[in-house]
Specification:
2 copies of one chain form a homodimer. By secondary structure, chain A is of the alpha+beta class. Chain A is built from 11 helices and 21 strands. In chain A, helix 1 packs across helix 2, helix 4 runs parallel beside helix 6 and helix 7 packs across helix 8.
């Protein structure tokens, strides 16, 4: 199989980010993803992009930094990274980011406290731009040989890469006659669930399942969204491709109880397995895991707002990712396989003006999966009424 | 042979760029040069760098741009590239750039007029920063497999890369017991030649040899330099490593005659062979070559000041590059093998305040080699006296 580079690139550029004529397009790529990056660049220029601004990330550079940099500069990022990001918003640019592990296990032997403090290439100004909705952006999977070996360790490297591509093609709905039409239909359905959830004005969401009994408060103006986004100027785009979630912004001060992750998560180049988190008054007061816990703890402790929730998202069984039962070690794909929460920064767009001052702010945003057919999701109204939302991963509303 | 990555990296960081504690270090690298880039990053952090800011250039992105971008955006570069460069100067940062062809012949089949207009990743603000002497910078060779295959096409790929590394080690004087001491000695000798040339106050330099009869006027305050540089704050650094030249800034309006290049040059991914240029009143009025001439013509025509000289440099036979008789297709190495001229931007630092307004300004800076043992170099004083400067590539002054 020749990977459908052009097909995926065109879907990302034309439908995902929905690049407009004359736009500057920021592309966050990584070593190992050159082929798709070049196809995206070609596609964007063909569509009339003014400049395609590609950055190849090399995780070895982070490894050298964490090993050798002075302790007091690990959090430093030159000011031009933030300024560039803000300017992209001012210029009404587009942005594409390719997801997927790059060098799995490269950071396993590092000092995890130091690793947790170096969050580059993430810069906090992205949160500002995303909340201002000035950029039409899309995060999409960028298959690579090393990612494939991590996901399918029992296959030969070539077969593993082929399998990864097959699954990426499937979850991106590139295997149907008209992928864009298929996405529009799925988007409408997710949008309609989000509308129904918003109309219920739940005061809290309750997760209950094996190892999990967690109540997440919502803000009075919390709105649910799903199935796509729109910039302030009215350019529709898919912030995530694929997307199978409906999400909202929780009350960072009202989270109580215990939650057990239902899938491993992959952050800062580390696999975090068997995660459990206990929340009190909105704070993550106890974080345990079978692997990688020091990295996660360091990220939570070293970044303001890292111990509070910034996102709550629900995923049903109609999505294409969950049924594959593949652990992708990639937040984009794994978070769209199951309901999830995120520690760190919140999406302003999901609350009204009145509550903007109350949502969580942070440099980090770490999604972790908490949903499964065994986890009941229940809405709780302000007068204590309980309404089933998901049972056996199927919508009840 | 294991390439001496650490040795070359340390020489570049500690002696070439002379990175200081607390500095931001910009590293301009390219795909295929990852190993040396990582060693440089490690070396810089060990030396106390605040942040090592690596950019990997992918020439395929230029190929896609030249092929598919709209005609009116080929010269466009987002403003943040220039701003970042100026800020590096304001912050008194360091800069390292790895030279050497990346994907030879990748641009051969492109529309050469369009190719000539897209000079990214070069940005004109570098000239500003270099002239302000606020950054301690170093261009050094970054060996790669594809570069090796171009230089040694008759060797097996592995042997070619080994040979390239051997020659790079030799010309960087890494094969002596104390490379830094060897460089200091060579620097002193070049500095002393430059001083003697400056004391002569030549009005012009005359090149005469096979196919060449060219007179290049100098400015009243033109000074000769060689063997190293110093920032405005007094940080010594080697702008080129290796360096074997003494150079000055010519009068862009007084260049007359014909010159034949003595080596091929490599610019914009193209090999330009058999170049001849005729100058009248300072302008390159006729540019011919056996290959790649359209690219060069387009660069000269599309960039203001591209048809006038910005640099004149002399190289003797004591250097380590010339005797190898290798054509590296790399300006850094080839220009230090033979006397050369450059079309485009001039170094302000080589003239006094009084002449700053007269030197050539341009976005481009294209060195081409015009020296050989067969080319006599003669200094001409303002009263017409002629003094031999180089005969058989040996200093006469």
């Amino acid at each position: 199989m020749r990977p459908p580079l052009e097909g995926l690139a065109d879907l990302i550029v034309s439908f995902g980010a929905n690049v407009q004529e004359g736009q500057i397009v920021d592309v966050g790529s990584a070593l190992g993803k050159e082929d798709l990056t070049r196809a995206i660049t070609a596609s964007a220029y063909k569509r009339g992009a003014k400049f395609v601004d590609v950055h190849y990330w090399d995780p070895h550079l982070k490894r050298e930094r964490v090993q050798h940099a002075a302790a007091d500069v690990l959090e430093f990022v030159p000011p031009w990274y933030g300024e560039r990001t803000l300017q992209l918003g001012d210029e009404r640019g587009a942005a594409i980011s390719l997801s997927g592990p790059i060098e799995p296990r490269l950071f396993d032997d590092l000092d995890q406290e130091r690793l947790g403090r170096d969050v580059f290439p993430r810069v906090k100004e992205w949160t500002t731009v995303i909340n201002a909705r000035t950029v039409n952006w899309c995060v999409a999977p960028g298959p690579s040989a090393k990612w494939a070996e991590l996901v399918f360790p029992d296959l030969e490297p070539e077969a593993a890469l082929e399998r990864l591509w097959e699954q990426v093609v499937h979850v991106c709905r590139l295997d149907v006659a008209d992928p864009v039409a298929a996405w529009r239909e799925r988007s409408r359905s997710l949008g309609s669930v989000a509308d129904r959830l918003s109309q219920r004005h739940f005061d809290a969401i309750h997760f209950e399942g094996p190892g999990t009994d967690l109540t997440v408060g919502l803000l009075p103006t919390s709105e649910w969204s799903g199935g796509g986004d729109e910039t302030a100027d009215g350019i529709p785009h898919m912030a995530n491709l694929p997307t199978e979630e409906v999400f909202t912004t929780p009350d960072p001060e009202r989270v109580e109880g215990m939650v057990r992750a239902t899938k491993p998560l992959y952050t800062q180049g580390r696999i975090i397995d068997g995660l459990t988190v206990r929340f009190e008054h909105g704070h993550a007061v106890q974080v345990e895991a079978e692997s990688g816990v020091e990295t996660l703890r360091a990220m939570i402790e070293q970044n303001e707002g890292g111990d509070r929730l910034g996102e709550l998202a629900l995923v049903d069984r109609e999505g294409r990712i969950g049924p594959l039962e593949t652990v992708f070690y990639d937040t984009l794909l794994d978070e769209n396989a199951a309901s999830h929460l995120a520690l760190g920064s919140a999406y302003e767009t999901a609350v009204g003006e009145a509550d903007r001052g109350r949502l969580n702010r942070s440099t980090i945003h770490i999604d972790f999966m908490v949903g499964s057919p065994q986890v009941d999701v229940t809405g709780v109204t302000s007068d204590g009424e309980r309404m089933p939302v998901l049972r056996d991963s199927t919508w009840q509303i």
